[in-house]
Amino acid sequence: MGEATESSVKRENQDAKDEDTVKYYTREEVQNHNMSNDTWLIIHDKVYDITRFMEEHPGGEEVLLEQAGADATESFEDVGHSTDAREMLQQYYIGELHMDDRNKVSKKEVYITTSKDSRSWSSWLIPGLAAVLVGFMYRYYMLEHRSS
Ligand code: HEM
After folding, report:
1. Which residues make beta-bridge pairs with 39?
2. Where is the composition biased (Basic and acidic residues) (predicted)?
3. Which phi and psi angles does 45 have, rounded to 5°?
4. Total-model pTM
5. Whose CA is nearest to atom 18 of ligand 1?
6. What is the pLDDT of residues 20-34, one digit of tens each?
7. Rounded CA gap, 72 and 103, in Å?
8. How far apart are CA 109 and CA 93, in angstroms?
9. Å from CA of 46 to ligand 1 middle
């Protein structure tokens, strides 16, 4: 019984130690690593040092360089990477994105969504008005045609 207690205590200490060693990076810090011989990426609020991986990437070195030092979540998801690719990511994990910098992204996303909404609204208005105008012109033409 005493033994079991001892091992569970040990496990608890180990967990606490792991939490202490998590590193937090700001966007600014990650941005400094945007070179081909020193490449970091942010994907889903996690920071990866992919310097060793650049040449191995099946999608090529160039696409990774384009995203170097920045948030590649969107492009990573757009490609529809396999589960294998997601597991590979773990090897390059170096830490988490700083909490203060996570909020900035969600604010930016909200802004993008709103601007998209207003764009779709205005893209409806012009063809709509054009259709009404064509309708009136047709009616006018038919009336004139009949009277002559
Ligand atoms: C460190 C992060 C990344 C890892 C571990 C990774 C891994 C992989 C792997 C294993 C493949 C082969 C297909 C698959 O299994 O899904 C792949 C393909 C591909 N990746 Fe990535 N990738 C990463 C980041 C990115 C990023 C940020 C982009 C885009 C900017 C990207 C673009 C592509 C493209 C376009 C392909 C398709 C290649 C083809 O179909 O010929 N990858 N990646």
Report:
1. 34
2. 8-23
3. 65, 15
4. 0.66
5. 59
6. 689 999 999 999 999
7. 16
8. 24
9. 17
Q: What's the longest Cα–Cα distance across the chain?
A: 109
The DSSP annotation for 37-67 comes to: TEEEEEETTEEEE-GGGGGG-TT-HHHHHHH
Q: What is the dihedral of CA 43, 49, 52, 55, to 10 degrees?
A: 40
| Domain ranges across the chain | 18-112
The number of residues making up the chain comes to 148
CATH number assigned to the domain covering 18-112? 3.10.120.10
CA separation for the pair 85, 76 (Å, rounded): 10
Pocket of ligand 1 (CB under 6 A): 41, 48, 50, 53, 57-59, 63-64, 67, 72, 75-76, 79, 81-82, 84-85, 88-89, 92
